[in-house]
Amino acid sequence: MTDTVQHGSILGGIATVPDLEVANKDYRDVLGMQIVENGILSSDLAGSWGCQNSAGAKMSVLQPASGAKCFIRLVEQPDHPDFKPTMTYGWAAYELSVQDVFGWPDRLQGSGFDIVGPPKELEGMPFFVPMQVLGTGREMIYLNEVREDMPSTDLPKAQSRTDQIFIVILASPDRAETVRWYEEKLGFDAADTFSLAYSMINNAFGLPADTRSDLTMVQSGRLPIVEVDHYPATATIRTRHDGMLPPGNALVTLAVDDFRNIDVDWITPPEKRETMPYNGRRSATVKGPAGELLELIEIGK
């Protein structure tokens, strides 16, 4: 998998946290990421996300020690009492490529991360070994040790203790319609569809362990981007504080070649921004079909 930023590359994800200093310590000292910016969320940027009431919040920008051009932004805001991970539509998790996944339970001891799924080899899936944790903002992070590429997908092996986000998981009320939107609106490709007993979903909704869920990979060629999961009808729209970012996994940032090829209803018109991860490029945000906030950065061809 190439480090070159291309159409569909995941440039980052935002997580909301109740205490930025505590979360920074976890992501820096435990996960081994580097803080590359600290500051305040501007009114202009918050407004571009449709989250004007998040303006003025403390924010940090973190990057893998590998130098991968993929950033996790942490934004401080109060917890929402009604938010329960893995039970609402929208961004459900960020999957990070990591080294030595079986060593992570010990490394996480005493941190703010709660293990919700220990490392486990998946039957019939020799390509990676996943585990799942929740951060202090109840953001879901998958720590995946990549072992080999999949038949139709290139997977990045970690070049540092924790490396880039290489898949974002989207919980949808209509998997097929959501996949179609990403194809038609953004020019991505529908790849493999799997049906499996998904323990994270079954445990969250109290379903029998053998209940199967469908998921489809959305890609750009062999580049993985979004895993679209079909969620049970008992899932709900994510509640959030008025005018603020959604709790947990709040927003995903993707690269696209040219805004002229993107036919969506922007929250605000595209605008050039200088800070990371924009670096002088235009960006704009759209609300996707599952209610997700999707920020796009124009990289040019």
Name the descriptors.
single chain, 301 residues, mainly beta, 8-stranded mixed sheet, 5 helices, 13% helix
Question: What can you tell me about this protein's structure?
Answer:
With 301 residues, the protein is mainly beta. Helices cover 13% and strands 38% of the residues. It is built from 5 helices and 16 strands. The strands form 2 sheets. The protein has an 8-stranded mixed β-sheet, with helices on one face. An 8-stranded mixed β-sheet has the order 6-7-8-5-9-12-11-10. The longest helix is centred in the middle third of the chain and has 12 residues, at 175-186. The two termini are 19 Å apart. The model has no long low-confidence stretch (mean pLDDT 95).
Brief summary:
With 301 residues, the protein is mainly beta. The chain has helices at 20-30, 43-48, 104-107, 175-186, 199-205; strands at 10-17, 34-40, 58-63, 71-76, 90-98, 114-117, 128-134, 140-146, 162-172, 189-197, 212-220, 223-230, 249-256, 271-273, 281-287, 293-298.
Largest sheet: 8 strands, mixed
> Based on DSSP secondary structure assignment, what is the total number of beta strands?
16
Proportion of residues in extended strands: 35-45%
Helical proportion, percent range: 10-25%
- Helix-strand pattern: EHEHEEEHEEEEHEHEEEEEE
Assembly annotation = single chain
Q: Radius of gyration in whole Å, from Cα?
A: 18 Å
Low-confidence stretches: none
**Distance between termini?**
19 Å
How many helices? The count is 5
With strands numbered from the N-terminus, the spatial order across the biggest sheet is 2-3-4-1-13-16-15-14
How would you classify the helix and strand content by structural class?
mainly beta
Based on Cα principal axes, name the global outline. globular
| Average pLDDT reading | 95
